[in-house]
Predict the structure.
Amino acid sequence: MKPGDADSMPQSAWQALGRYPELWRVTLLAFASGLPLALSGGTLQAWLADVRIDIRTIGIFSLVGLPYTLKFLWAPLFDRYTPLGMGRRRGGLVLTQVSLVTALLAMSSIDPHSDIALLGLLALGIAFASASQDIVFDAYRTEVLHPPMRGLGAGLTNTGYRLAMLTSGALALVLAGSVGWVATYRVMAVLMALGILVTLLSPEPEAPAATPHRLVEALREPMRAFLQRPAALVFLLLIVLYKFGDAFAATLSTAFLVQGVGFSVAEVGVVNKGVGIAAALAGALAGGALMVRWGLLRALLVFGVLQAVTNLLFAALAVVGKSHGMLVVAVVGEQLFGGMGSAAFVALLMALCDTRYTATQYALFSALAALARVFIGPPAGYLVADLGWPVFFVLTFLASLPALALVLWLGEPIRRLDQSPVVSTGAG
């Protein structure tokens, strides 16, 4: 699609899927992006526990997830350099994907009892390569999805990513019970290799007018270029706050259902992991489809209101007490409308990126958005202890309102984002 075609909006999600093959490509690449996450995390922990590795050692293995939180530190490398001579984005994807396939195959041949240190190094390598693939994929998606595709593309990639996590999580555990861990990790390596094929068959995004010529430019310019945008600081505040209330409520939601209301772990697992995941996938797809008709501003407002109101459903559950019907309503509402909000939020992040520095800017934006999830846990526990669960969830609803006010304040700038392709602004 050419940038000049941005005004030709499709009338439905089905028309968009037929008109823009980029949507199918980014969905498949999202699957490749989500596949390695559990293989160095939860699935690996299950393997170690299954073969009776000491719990203290398993605890240390949780540190291999650090690259996912620090990936913005090396994101500028993917804006500056062109790996393998295949283009900035395709080359970066192939490089990380080949690294992942190699590391997964190597991991499958290791005995955890005799080579636990080497297994740990490989797990760290997988996490690093996976976080790097996320950097390049986010940049690729941002650069190929122009306004008519952003919302639906965000929903589809969310779906592809979650399906990959189910594949390398729940499905891998089932597979390991039948064929063993060695075969399971080799199957995952084969699935990862299919991502390489998708990348090779996908075109490189159109090159921006000017890309960084020096590493120092790739390090310094992304934030300076963004700050030249009108209302830049307000947009940064919106990035931090849009999912704040949602994250605030979610940080203790499982503890609330078990301790606060009295559901069993099995009951929570069935609803959260079964019905909840299905609702989240439906929400992401429905949100993306609605954005084709509504545009970014209306979606941010409506979905923001809906994801805020779902916090009140948990307040109602806290008042009503143990009710399976209310549990399903609360969890389905949270996941459905949270998925819609996530689709709109990802579309906003894509729209804010400058094509010269997409990898760095998107990594920085997503790191800012994660701040709430990192720091809100401790005060949330104290609030529950002092005020109780119903008041806590009402407070999380109120914490969602500033973001909605910011969306209204930024109405005109957001409309302009929706009328133009990913921009290149500022001096290089």
